[in-house]
Design goal:
- The protein is an alpha/beta fold and 319 residues long.
- It has 11 helices and 16 strands.
- Strands 2, 3, 4, 5, 6, 7, 8, 10, 11 and 12 form a 10-stranded mixed β-sheet that branches. A 4-stranded parallel β-sheet has the order 13-16-14-15, with helices on one face.
- The structure holds threonylcarbamoyladenylate (TXA) and magnesium ion.
């Protein structure tokens, strides 16, 4: 059920239930981090493997000290620059954080969301909220309440409108003196580096804890998706098919008959394109198309993030 009733959400959460939560990145499926039954339900309804830990959402920076220890100074610098906002920090957890939330890792992922409704809700609760994106494991993340309802219609979903950032938070961790980006997201690498100095990108060949979101096929529509930088060739190959085409800023000339195109930002704004990405994928996935083709975005700033999400969604789909 979609609703704006914050008090109802509070009472469900206080009784170990879970709800759909708007954030500025994507909608989450939220529950009390200290309620074992709520956390188990999140894993169950998402069909998420228990080895894939959850992000903890807190209302202010003081709350961090209640769940994390040995926080490096650079983490505070990043937090003070980007919180509330689409940045998640991996910090050494204290013993109060239940192992089920962190999949028994020694770190806890934490962020302060920027969405006013999420902050209002957190301020009415006396516990943090664990919230993964509100999609079944591996499917497209939701950026509108209706997307969540499609997946989990029996849950209360707080309606906070369309997510402003529209892609997940950037996940940053700390090993020794290294600042490591584990997942690209709403804060760009350049923005992080402007505070922390040079970062390393998580590389699965290195000996490091895994962020499963970095590895497997993710954010995928049911319709086959291909990412290309050779659109002309695809136009020839698929000229008679029903194709959904995702473009950055320009329409395509001589669009084949059965093709439909979505230009994510006619004014060439990568933030706008990022905000449109998942809702466009949701829309295309309902159109019974033969396949979806996405044009490679410029490899800068949020363009890198969009390409990363699209390449995960198209993983293993080769022509
Ligand atoms: O923008 C977001 O971050 C959204 C909103 C709802 O806050 N949440 C989100 O959660 O994207 P989720 O569960 O879909 O993605 C969390 C990612 C997963 O890839 C998980 O493996 C990683 O964070 N993660 C969580 N805790 C971790 C930890 N302690 N160490 C390494 N990776 C962790
Ligand atoms: Mg997710």
């Amino acid at each position: 059920m979609i609703s704006k009733d914050l008090n109802l959400a509070v009472s469900i959460l206080n009784k170990d239930g879970i709800i759909g939560l708007p954030t500025e990145t994507v909608y989450g499926l939220a529950g009390n981090i200290f309620s074992e039954s709520a956390i188990k339900e999140i894993f169950e309804v998402k069909q998420r493997p228990l080895y894939n830990p959850l992000i903890v959402h807190v209302k202010n920076i003081d709350e961090i000290n209640k769940i994390a220890v040995d926080i490096p100074p650079v983490a505070f610098e990043l937090a003070s620059k980007f919180w509330p906002g689409p940045l998640t920090l991996l910090l050494k957890k204290n013993t109060l954080v239940p192992d089920i939330v962190t999949s028994s890792k020694s770190t806890v992922a934490v962020r302060i969301p920027k969405h006013p409704m999420a902050l209002d809700l957190l301020n009415k609760l006396d516990f943090p909220l664990a919230a993964p994106s509100a999609n079944p494991f591996g499917m497209i993340s939701p950026t509108k309440a209706a997307h969540v309802e499609n997946y989990f219609n029996e849950k209360l979903i707080l309606d906070g409108g369309t997510c402003e950032t529209g892609i997940e938070s950037t996940i940053v961790g700390f090993i020794g003196n290294d600042v490591i980006i584990y997942r690209l997201g709403g804060i760009t690498i350049d923005e992080i580096e402007s505070v922390s100095g040079e970062v390393k990108l998580f590389n699965k060949s290195e000996e490091m804890p895994e962020a499963p979101g970095m590895l497997s096929k993710h954010y995928a529509p049911q319709t086959q998706l291909y990412l290309t930088n050779d659109l002309e060739n695809h136009k020839l190959m698929f000229s008679t098919k029903r194709i959904g085409l995702i473009l950055y800023n320009k329409s395509v000339e001589n669009l084949p008959n059965k093709w439909i195109e979505f230009v994510l930002s006619p004014k060439s704004d990568l933030a706008e394109a990022a905000a449109q990405l998942y809702s466009t994928l949701h829309q295309l996935d309902k159109m019974n198309l033969d396949c979806i083709i996405a044009e490679q975005f410029p490899d800068v700033g949020l363009g890198c993030v969009i390409n990363d999400k699209l390449s995960r969604a198209s993983k293993n789909n080769k022509l």
